[in-house]
Automatic annotation (TrEMBL):
It comes from the Bacteria. It comes from Tengunoibacter tsumagoiensis. GO terms for molecular function: transposase activity. Residues 1-24 are annotated as: Disordered. Residues 6-145 form the Tn3 transposase DDE domain. One of its GO terms (biological process) is DNA transposition. This is Tn3 transposase DDE domain-containing protein.
Length: 153
C-alpha cells in the first residue's frame, strides 16, 4: 500500500529507527507475506470470540445480543492520502466506525469517509460482516445512524 503510516511516524521508513536491526525491506516483506485484510479480520474475530468464551457469567451476565455503533474522527496530516476535511468537526482527519457489543468488546471497525453524509451503510456493514460468534439482534446508534421515513410515506 502506498503511503503507509504517512504523517504518523509509523510508516516503513520511520519505524525501523526504533529497531536498528530491522529494515524497511524487512517490514515490506513481512507485510506482503503474512499480513492480509482477511487474516486480520479472522484474528480480530478470534480474539473477540475468546473474550466471549472466558467471561464469567456471574460478573458479566449472560451472552450479549446487542451492540452500539458510532464513528470517531481522528486527526491526520493533510499529506495523508486518506485525510479529508470534516465539516462538523472543522478539521482534517479520518473517521473510524466502531461496533461495540454490550459488554465493551469491539466486534467490527471500518474506515469511513469524512465526506459521507450517512452512517447507515457503515452501521449495516458491521452488523452483517462482524465475523464473531456474537448473535446481534439489536443495534443502538445516535441520530446519524438512524433511518427516518419521509412524511409522505
Amino acid at each position: 500500500m502506498k503511503g503507509d503510516g504517512l504523517g504518523t511516524n509509523t510508516g516503513f521508513k520511520r519505524l525501523p529507527s526504533a529497531d536498528p536491526g530491522t529494515t524497511e525491506s524487512d517490514l515490506r516483506y513481512v507485510r506482503s507475506r503474512y499480513i492480509h485484510k482477511e487474516q486480520l479480520r479472522n484474528a480480530i474475530a478470534h480474539v473477540a470470540n475468546t473474550i466471549f468464551e472466558i467471561r464469567r457469567a456471574d460478573i458479566w451476565g449472560e451472552g450479549t445480543t446487542a451492540c452500539a455503533s458510532d464513528s470517531k474522527k481522528f486527526g491526520a496530516w493533510n499529506q495523508n492520502l486518506l485525510t479529508e476535511w470534516h465539516i462538523r468537526y472543522r478539521g482534517p482527519g479520518i473517521m473510524i466506525y466502531w461496533h461495540v457489543e454490550r459488554k465493551s468488546t469491539c466486534i467490527y471497525s471500518q474506515f469511513k469517509s469524512c465526506s459521507s453524509s450517512s452512517e447507515v451503510a457503515a452501521m449495516i456493514e458491521g452488523l452483517l460482516r462482524h465475523c464473531t460468534d456474537a448473535e446481534i439482534e439489536k443495534n443502538y446508534v445516535d441520530t446519524h445512524g438512524s433511518y427516518t421515513e419521509r412524511p409522505d410515506q
